[in-house]
Design a protein that fits this description.
The chain has about 130 residues and is mostly beta strands. Helices cover about 0% and strands about 50% of the residues. The chain is built from no helices and eleven strands. The strands form two sheets. Strands 2, 4, 5, 6, 9, 10 and 11 form a seven-stranded mixed sheet that branches. It has a four-stranded antiparallel sheet with strand order 1-3-8-7, with no helix packed on it. The termini are far apart.
């Protein structure tokens, strides 16, 4: 089992920044992919970004490229999503997820991910 806990959400004005954290505990895997997804009210959950645990390769959906940045602290088993230049359309519940069956392939398919956090709300006001 892997437990994932997100934090760092909140209310911010358009153009502002937030940093989300995803802390893993339990049976941690030294080499897997962590993804971030988001779900706005009335919409399907969508892919945001993913990062390999080793090597640091990243993959972003087009709408956040240049604004969002993934990083990780392996010693703390934590992945960070730095979100800059936030827009009202970024408003959603953000979830981190672990794909323990992949060490290198950065999937944007939520069904590839095995463990999920409880989510953290991000609200961007205009």
């Amino acid at each position: 089992q892997v437990q994932l806990v997100e934090s760092g959400g909140g209310l911010v004005q358009a153009g502002g920044s937030l940093r989300l954290s995803c802390a893993a505990s339990g049976r941690t895997f030294s080499n897997y992919v962590t993804g971030w997804f988001r779900q706005a009210p009335g919409k399907e959950r969508e892919f945001v970004a993913a990062i390999r645990w080793s090597g640091g390769s990243t993959y972003y959906t087009d709408s956040v490229k240049g604004r969002f940045t993934l990083s990780r602290d392996n010693a703390k088993n934590t992945v960070y999503l730095q979100m800059n230049s936030l827009k009202p359309e970024d408003t959603a519940v953000y979830y981190c997820a672990a794909d323990i069956n992949s060490s290198w392939y950065l999937s944007n398919n939520l069904y590839e991910y095995d463990y999920w956090g409880q989510g953290t709300q991000v609200t961007v006001s205009s």
